[in-house]
């Protein structure tokens, strides 16, 4: 046990996430791991969020060199399916060809026109420029040039679309602009080992919401990397969700996580609740997956009941066997951060993917994509959700397919962001002071970012 772990255990004796999780059985090895390396406890300058030069440096030295989540496999399941991924001024066209996944710079080799509209997806037999009708096959090879006699200087054999690295892991498709970058599996470091028991390839996007936010992409994402704010922004959650006693782990440059107990009171809660009360008032999670509430048997916990109900539902409705999954693997918020901008929650009771990007080329605005994943039904009859885009002042509750309580929590998280952005500009101090443990993963994000900006990665 290191110094940070000892501080947390002394602060919340018998009530850390690991303590709560072990009350319903032994933890699998991957969840029993703890990793909290020492950090430089420096302040983080607000210029890292507000300075246009810093933003440009990120674009050039970080975004062009990292593996970043672009879409799910089901978005490009059939030959001819395509998906456009945008980051800043850069744009990538991902297609499913006869030989597998391909990704191209979304720019015509003639006059540079975008080949497909930003944010679009669909099906196409080939890739055609909408301006002058130059055409490429799905494998990127040149197919046709109108009035081709006008271009004797073009070597047809070498006029294929410029490619971007593309790879898939666990049903998720990633791209990388750096042709010299190491393979995705190396970039993901410990993640494939951790996710061996959490297969998301048989799941699909049931809900996809994109919200425009009034803050830098880091500011927006960091609100989801700590629960220090929960008692004050989400006070209704403290009776049924562990927050200040969450476990935070930093495993490597690109991977960290937090583990939060569901149906377990926060250390800040002053309300005494029975196990039945916890079960009856448990609000957080994907309600469509957790199902109706039952009774808590003698000697069992609300957490055990929720996990057992979910196991039965997954078997009956989807033919999925989760009998060997522990209680926390079923219902807890197991949130993994993949540098720079991805959060993945693999537990079936709260299976989400969250992504944060600059909104266009604006350092002061970002987009937040939330994907809610459901298992593919046994009959194979499902439809991948189209993205529903909402503005800064729109509510997640307006999205009919979203769980109502989860939507209200997201509203609370995002409503505070303009205040934070404006406060950064108004600051006389010019920097933020982060906690030693609960906000350690935010500090780690900046540590890894610095390695890219300084050319160490």
From TrEMBL:
Protein name: Phenylpropionate dioxygenase, large terminal subunit
Regions annotated as coiled coil: none
Cofactor(s) the protein needs: Fe cation
Cleavable signal peptide: none
Highest taxon listed in the record's lineage: Bacteria
PANTHER family, per database record: CHOLINE MONOOXYGENASE, CHLOROPLASTIC
GO molecular function, one term: dioxygenase activity
InterPro entries: Rieske_2Fe-2S, Rieske_2Fe-2S_sf, Ring_hydroxy_dOase_asu_C_dom, Rng_hydr_dOase-A
Family annotation (Pfam families): Rieske (PF00355), Ring_hydroxyl_A (PF00848)
Iron-sulfur found in the keyword field: yes
Domain Rieske: 67-175
Entry keyword annotation includes Chaperone: no
Xref: Gene3D superfamilies: Naphthalene 1,2-dioxygenase Alpha Subunit, Chain A, domain 1 (3.90.380.10), Rieske [2Fe-2S] iron-sulphur domain (2.102.10.10)
Keywords: 2Fe-2S, Dioxygenase, Iron, Iron-sulfur, Metal-binding, Oxidoreductase
